[in-house]
Description:
The protein is of the alpha/beta class and 418 residues long.
Amino acid sequence: MLRFRRSSLPVLLLAATAAGGCATTSVAREVSGGRPAAGQVSLPRPTGPFKVGTTSLHLVDQSRRDPWTPSRARELMVSVWYPASAPGKEDVPHMTAKAAAHFGSEQGAATLNLGMPPGRADWGAVRTHATADAPVARKAGRLPVVLYSSGLADPRTWNTTLVEDLASRGYAVITVDHTGEASEVEFPGGRLVTGRLAEGTPPTSPAEVTALLKKAMAARVADARFVLDRLPGIGRGRFGGALDAGRVGMVGQSAGGFTAAQTMHDDRRVRAGVNMDGQMDYTGGKPDGSELSTVARDGLDRPLLLMGTESEGSGDHTEQPSWDAFWRNTRGWKGDVTLAGSRHATYTDAEALLPPLAEQGIAPKGGLTGAVGTVRPARAIAAERAYVTSFFDRWLRGRDDHLLDGPSSRFPEMRFTA
């Protein structure tokens, strides 16, 4: 996500619109578990049977130049989240100190994407429920692998709520920072590379926006495919062969959802994917189907779940030209669900972290509901976790809880569109 003028960028690039009011005190506490210190918030605990471990890796693709800094080879930071045994203290920060400081600054994604007041929230104080470099839980068996790609300009950490839950349920989840586009990426030694999307004059013409989208998406898909290339080596390393490179899925939010779908189209190693509120075209103005991606034009022969929101320009496949094209052209299993009362940032950590911050008077510009909607945060988080897990359990593990068969009394907030 990245906020520019609404007239010049499609929904894929936009943060949630500023509208509405704030959540009530009870709703904020429902997610945070109580009133935190000023400017501090916490993530909800994962719900699976396993503890969670995580490790960060610095990957360099010597075969590719960086599209944002052509003088350098392409460098990525990724994190692997996995079921752990005998973990120690849960002390891994949500973001590194340098990254958190930039994320909350005037140039960071918290400000540009979410409209948060710069310098008010203590993003560096947020902790995960994972332990660094904990041993892999051998009881979990061979681990299906899920790649996670965040929204445009968001860091790889910005859906830890979902990622940790998948890891606690027996998945290895690899989160990918798209360097040069992400708000900030901290490399070993403390080197911070900040995003370049907002440098200079923002694109204003439809053609300029289309060109920027195509450049960003090409880099993202190449990043994902490079991680897939490195997956066997990652699995043979400290994971001792626990990662199952033959069972790979991908999920993402906004541009990350588009990335998941497009990577599936371009690379058959990805067996199943989830697109959370990401349009699948490059239209520089109002999406009209004139700049469809190849995944929208061709469809897929493997399963993809579309998860829409009630944001302006979103909705189900009957309301989005690129989703409609995909729906008509795809040959594999497909599903389309929309969460009532949701907004574009609902399927991110914003749903867990913004309500308790708003309770403390630190709210997005224009109000909380413009960012995360009116759905109760705890319900939104539970629904996102349940539907994504159900999907990957079905297609990577052969376990079907039938949640995706149709409307469910467990989640009346989720609307199905056939």
